[in-house]
Amino acid sequence: xxxxxxxxxxxxxxxxxxxxxxxxxxxxxxxxxxxxxxxxxxxxxxxxxxxxxxxxxxxxxxxxxxxxxxxxxxxxxxxxxxxxxxxxxxxxxxxxxxxxxxxxxxxxxxxxxxxxxxxxxxxxxxxxxxxxxxxxxxxxxxxxxxxxxxxxxxxxxxxxxxxxxxxxxxxxxxxxxxxxxxxxxxxxxxxxxxxxxxxxxxxxxxxxxxxxxxxxxxxxxxxxxxxxxxxxxxxxxxxxxxxxxxxxxxxxxxxxxxxxxxxxxxxxxxxxxxxxxxxxxxxxxxxxxxxxxxxxxxxxxxxxxxxxxxxxxxxxxxxxxxxxxxxxxxxxxxxxxxxxxxxxxxxxxxxxxxxxxxxxxxxxxxxxxxx
Length: 371
Known about the structure:
- There is one protein chain.
- About 10% of the residues lie in helices and about 30% in strands.
- By secondary structure, the protein is mostly beta strands.
- It folds into two domains: about 10-30 and about 355-370, no CATH class; about 50-335, Distorted Sandwich (Beta-galactosidase, Chain A, domain 5).
- The strands form three sheets. Strands 5, 6, 7, 12, 14, 17, 18 and 19 form an eight-stranded mixed sheet that branches. Strands 8-9-10-11-20-16-15-13 form an eight-stranded antiparallel sheet, with no helix packed on it. A four-stranded antiparallel sheet has the order 1-2-3-4, with no helix packed on it.
- Helix 1 runs antiparallel to helix 2.
C-alpha cells in the first residue's frame, strides 16, 4: 500500500519566498474600499403590487427595490414607508430605510407646515414635538386614503385649511442600472378664498444593512466622508452618498438633489439639507416636527443613529405659496449601488526596483546551488 507523503521544504528555501511575499505586499498600494458582489442575481420584469386583505401595508416590488407604505389609520401613521433592495439587486434583500423584524415602520415620515395657521401636519403618530409657535396635527386625522396606481402608491390627506396633500412613492425603472425610488409630495390649495404658505420636510431614517449609523459624502463635486452632523443651506453639490462605513461598506445609498440629472419628474433642490441624528439615543430630528438644529453629534459607529432631512420652504420667507386652486410639488430620488470594486494594485517605482533586485538575488542563489 502506498501512502502520499508531504514534501517538507527546507527552511533555507522558505525564507526568500516569505521575504518576497512580505515585500510585494508592502509595495502595493492598499485600497481603502473593498467589495463583494453576490453570485447569480435574479432579475424580474415588471412591478409586483400587493394590497392583500388583512395586510396593513401596500407594497411595490420591481425585483430591484421593494417599497412598503402603511395603509391603515390608528397604528404608526398611514403613509409612513420603508425601502429595501429586492432579490434582483446586486446587494439583495437589505433594508435601506429602517424597518424592524416584524416589518413595522414609522420612523421615516412627512411633515407639512402651514404658516398662516401655525400647524405642523405629520404622517407619523409616534409623537414628534411641535416647533415654537406651532401645533402638531396627526395626518391620520385628515381623512387619509392610500391607493395603488401602476408603479405608484398614493396617500392623500385633506387638512382643515383645505390643502390636498398627495404623497407618491414610486419605483422607476426595471434593471439595476436604471431603477430608483421616487418620493413626490404634491399639494393643492383647495381653499377658495386665501393663499396658503407651506413648508415640506422629509425625514429618511437610514438603516444600511441593519446598521443605524452611517457616513455621508458630497458627490459631484466629491468631498471626503464625514460622520458628524452637518447641514447645507446653499447646496454646492449635485448628489450625496451614504454608507455604513467607507472602509467596509455594505452598499452605497445615493440621493439626487438637483435638476441636473435627466429624471422625470426632476429632483427638486431642497432649501436646506441635513445629515443628522435620528434620535434613538438622544435628541434627534425625529423628535422635532419641523425645526431641528444640528449639534455636531457623531453619526457612525455603535449606538449611533443617522437620518437625512430635506426641507422646502424651511422658513416663512421662502415658503411655498399657493393661491386658491394652485398646486406645487417636490421630488427626491433614492437608489443603491454596491461598494466600489477592489482596485487593481499598482507597484510604486521603489517597489519595482526592490522586486527586480529581490528576484535577481533569488535567481542567483538558485543557480549557485545547482552548480
